[in-house]
Amino acid sequence: MTTNHIDIIGNLSSLGLILYYQGNYDDAPYYHRRAHTIRRNFYPFDHIDIAESLYNIGNSFYQYGKYNEALDYYLQTLDTEEKFHSPYFADITLCLNNIGCTLDQQKKDAKVLHYYQHPLKISNILCQQKCYKEALEYYHQVFNIRESFYPSGHVDIVDSLNDIGITYMEMIEPKISRNYCNVLGLNMN
Prior knowledge:
Layout: H1 3-21, H2 28-42, H3 48-63, H4 67-84, H5 90-105, H6 109-115, H7 119-128, H8 132-149, H9 155-170, H10 174-183
Helix pairs in contact: 1-2, 1-3, 2-3, 3-4, 4-5, 5-6, 7-8, 8-9, 9-10
């Protein structure tokens, strides 16, 4: 692939994302599809760069309320991402979350739980069910995974510490919760 084509793909994707973030869900998919078409002409079907286009198209359909189309693109994205990354890679996590949200919008509860088998999703569901001790186990798993992948102070590590602290607070464990908040630089005294 020439540098020109890479630049064109980047520009098309950027235009699609700008329109998406401006709430222009009608026009955003056009640019993502154009980027996707160029990528398909230069890369094999399951190349990791194609997953980005599929994901962006899925997001546009989701925001437009076209959940069947969004789900199709998210599933294609997940299939491609899983060939290249570990199950705890951030893009896979986002894709699983979006699949779960899409199925939730479609009221397909049994399938939602299948895609929420990721530890963070499990912990969030357990917290909603007020099963805090079980949720903490999963939040600690997420923290350990993130800590092994990201440098100290990374926003995802901070989010994990926050989740753990809030869960202890929900359990009415103020001393333990305060320790996590102090690590985050929040004064809870």
